[in-house]
Amino acid sequence: MFSKGGHKVAAGTYWNLTNGSRVQMDQEGALPGSGQTRYIKAPVAVILMAAPVIGLVFAVFLPFIGIAMTLSLIGKKLVDGVASAAAGSMSFGWRPIEAYLSGRKRKKEARERKSDKGAKS
Fold first, then answer.
1. Which residues pair with 12 in a beta bridge?
2. CB 3.0-4.6 Å disulfide test: which of 35, 39, 117, 119 passes with 14?
3. Helices in 1-121 by DSSP H: which ranges?
4. Rg (Cα) of the chain, in Å, rounded?
């Protein structure tokens, strides 16, 4: 019933399960495509009868698909937000953009001296 691309098959109608294309084999031969391409052998009447059933299954499960996609999107947003908040709260004590050429430690020491003098007075 199922065949793969490149395999030798008997004459008949084969349907590509990936893109829905139809391959009509008038005589025995190899199916087009690679070994990853899957085909199903079925007459046109069977495929036409299966189409409404497949459509019904899709229509029934469409709300569930929408709910699952919404929950997945919300979950991804939450995980990204938590990861972003965690990354933003990390501090390495230095900033690569700032050079501190005037001496960061000296400014800090000067501020401490001023606060010490103000506290003694």
1. 25
2. 39
3. 44-89, 104-120
4. 34
Q: Are 48 and 37 in contact (CB under 8 A)?
A: no
d(C-alpha 102, C-alpha 106), whole Å: 8
**Residue 4 in contact with residue 32, Cβ under 8 Å?**
no
Q: Give the tokens for residue 31.
A: 């199916």
- 26 is written with which tokens? 């008038």
The pLDDT tens digits of the residues spanning 83-113 come to: 888 877 776 666 677 666 665 566 677 777 7
Could you tell me which of 40, 1, 2 has the C-alpha nearest to residue 19? 40
Q: Is the pLDDT of residue 14 over 80?
A: yes
pLDDT in tens, 31-87: 888 888 888 888 878 888 888 998 999 999 999 999 999 999 999 999 999 988 887
What token pair was written down for 115?
């606060």
